């Protein structure tokens, strides 16, 4: 309940027809009084300070706020009853709500749950949606500003209160309470309605748990967590949990609008928005009325709902339903508007030696206008990135269009032949695509057509200066382009098996150290130059001088080329159509490596690795050839009619190069791309949908124990960590359904490992067992354990979740040690290093050996300068023996069995603690057939065709 102070000397005793009885509060520009009307009904009166009575601007602002409050007040706020803004002492009379604040209720009664929490969610979001529709941003939404009245929650201290406390001008001033402030309020970026959506999410967490989502200790610590770490959602359950998580996305452009959240809540409450005639404003007002009614319904409870079977939904009240952030039920969004995609917080995993890529994209600003009113941008900003000037053709928004917010784009309706249309139904990064014929029916299978163009939205190559030759194609878009431009000796199929392409025969000697490769005759580069053994030898030597690393290091003479002492590989000999290769050690699975673009041939004009002209305009022998390329902007490929395996169905591939996943999705939903990769590393990535193309990836997330010293020396300590982890919660929290709990060191995508590894401690959390093992290791509560993490968003995000679990289960003092990427190896191999290392590892080719040997081989123990990857220093003679047996086995089945045995040895000793496995995901237009994800998560361009 509000505290009522007695009137002070100088306070008025009467204003108009109201008798003042007490003081409720005071701000910088006015006071709020308790009063009674002639019938004894209590009201609240807000009075402008006398010193502002002669200030025309202050009076005008006060009058404007009155008009805003009148539009808002019917919807879960304090109703406006009377006002006089023209007299000598301007005042506004509102309903007095004699009810405790939410913060008081929670302190007295504990967390809310069930229907109480659900009604609170709907009522408060109804109020925020009404406030936003009226052109106001609250900027200080928190439990103390929610009154828990008998007829439903009421939101106070907005609009009029803002006129009393501030200038009313929207700015980047950090007004608000730190625990509920959005990142943009902390950083000084412009503030829009999405800041209130964030505060609502944080308030719902507090209401459900009585704990702040980002802690309640020092202000700097809270602000740091808000900017860099995931929220602690505690016991908040579905379906509200997923919606709240979406509201707490760091990038404001990726959060749903208040209207979208409200409509999702109503749908989950079994009261989907009713059809309403009239323009958008009338439809939105009807939805607000429906929200206020629902908040006052005693029996209301949110219920999870299955995702719609078909994406063709009816238009409801001027709104088009769209899938929810949790994939539970459709969320309507104003016609012509779409929710922007979730922001990227992580980076694609490195292809060479499992190293991660460079830093994050920076979210773009919001938008504000003077006078406290928020207006949408005149031209949409894709994903908060560059302005729309760099995105020609994106649909623009009209001023004042309902539901348009920062970063929002028009509904993507893509023209198709025969009167058909592709309708994109979007929320966040979730997109469902269906193709409708002119009568609204589903179109049947289409016959592939020759010709046409596919448009890709891909992240710009991360190589220095944007080079796209095979020597710089370790992963990401560089690899995608290299596969389209070059065809090598071998090829990885979608299921991870390796088959010959230009290699007619690949033969080893008895020891698998000398290999003879017969090359298909009569093929050429796109410029007509022959592709022979010499072209392959030339390409290998060129690429060995670059970033070949683990893939080439055992070819004889590699070190000399890599160090610049030689220009050619001593162990590679070309004679006509035959290539002979000498290795420094046995490797019976050497052919598996040859599918990597690093082993592609190059023409004579390629020159050495520093020939930038060629690196930016490579001449290849693949299904396509490069027509044009502008680094970080666009690339255009056209069909290569000289390809050795016929002609591709497509005439052209155009690639829009972006800086983030958000921009890729913007291009897709804006009708500018037919394919957009979804970065499943992103903690804000879209939930998994049946219509989204997905496949299990090869990247494993893991914790590497430092076994040479410190608390992780003992097997019991390492097992304690493994049993303490709730892998399902980590995967779901961090990847939003893209990841899956890891049960082995090798991804199930690798042939022979589809059933996962034999890891009993990975099957599910067991707190009692974890504590028992920690006690056996002498590691009681309070034990300090370092957790080393690269200064990369993805790593920091999931490591914070791991830290919380280990603290909760074992009581350990887990310290995150964030290290710059360039200093990482030196830091984790230093003499004082102890604890755990966060690592993501992607094999360089589809083999378990490419995971187990570099990470755990006894000859791979890392130092500050040797480039090895056994960071934990683990060594086991039986394991090393099994690896040697495996790589010497000529039979594939026998090799797989031995590698599984080696993996079990490592898991039994918990040499590495698996956490989760990534998944590839992409959005693809169904105008094409044969366009799918390959084994590496790249689009299958060579087989794609128009329907």
Automatic annotation (TrEMBL):
GO MF: ATP binding; peptide transmembrane transporter activity; protein kinase activity
Q: Where is the composition biased (Low complexity)?
A: 328-339
Q: Supply the SUPFAM superfamilies for this chain.
A: Periplasmic binding protein-like II, Protein kinase-like (PK-like)
The Protein kinase domain covers 18-266
Check the record and name the Pfam families matching this protein: Pkinase, SBP_bac_5
Q: Where does the sequence pass through the membrane? A: none
Q: Where is the composition biased (Gly residues)?
A: 348-357
Q: Which domain of life is it from?
A: Bacteria
Q: Name one GO biological process term.
A: peptide transport
UniProt region (Disordered), positions on chain: 305-409
Please give the PANTHER family that the UniProt record associates with this protein: ABC TRANSPORTER SUBSTRATE-BINDING PROTEIN (PTHR30290:SF83), PERIPLASMIC BINDING COMPONENT OF ABC TRANSPORTER (PTHR30290)
Name of the protein: Protein kinase domain-containing protein
